[in-house]
Design goal:
With 306 residues, the chain is an alpha+beta fold. It folds into 3 domains: 67 residues, no CATH class; 58 residues, no CATH class; 165 residues, Orthogonal Bundle (Neutral Protease, domain 2). 40% of the residues lie in helices and 14% in strands. Helix 8 packs antiparallel against helix 9. It is elongated. The N and C termini lie far apart (59 Å). The C terminus is likely disordered.
Amino acid sequence: MVTGKFCNLCGQPTKGQYNVYRRLGSDIHKGLVVCQRCEREARRCAICRIPISPVVSVNGLCPTCDTQVPRCAACGQRIQGHYIRNESNGAYYCETCFNHRPHCGVCGGAVGRGGYQLHDGRFICAQCHDTAVYDAGKAADLYEQVTGIMDQRLGMRLNMLPSLSLVDRNQMLALLEQTEISDTDDPDRVFGLFLRRGRKRTIYVEYGLPQILMIQIMAHEYAHAWQGENCPLLRDPFVREGFSEWAAYRVLVALGAVKKAALLEQRADLYGQGLQLMLALERQGGTAAVFQACRSGETKGSQRLP
């Protein structure tokens, strides 16, 4: 404690001793001066417990904590207690919003301001809505871009190019009943599907997905179509999904979406582990080793991850 200053909270001359908090204040070199009366009676920051003035208090926080504590992506308020972090997009949510608000059908986060409910009942948060694709023409342009990369850069040309169809959630669930999906798949988290009916081949993708996710789904399902032409007897889901995820990974990298591609590699499920295996094969023997593994259904030189 020192003597002979004006209190930065009440503005009165300090009488006797006072405290100086050097991490706050308009005069950053001298710090925040607090008299003994304000030290005892002033409201304190809910995070760091430093005395604060009602004039500078922001939702019970000091200016420093107000800029450092994350805001809830749903309600916009600073989170003063426990929070939930969405690993897919880095957003933070307070427990109240995460437990009581509807959740985004894409990222799984709590839906708040700027969110929407689509006609099929799905909710979509503001962040996912910002780049969501609702128009069939826009989706067709993305599909053309994806097929060009798959053909020219990865050498995965198809004899019969599947048509593209945008569907809603209810239509996707109906389509899933007509095919076999992995036991590890949650039907509510399946956003794309490749189906062959006789000579007709179609890639179905849910509308309303963020653009980069829609590109990923298109590439993944295109790879399944390629498998249908080049290795129709392949049944191992680890190889099937790992190869398709590798193709999607390569398309994302080609488009410069390296952060999104890295998130695929970090997944701990069948898709993520299959991708890790394919990338390991690629490091050992190049893309030829990846294609050989898919055609033969084998993964020589590597082991499945635990």
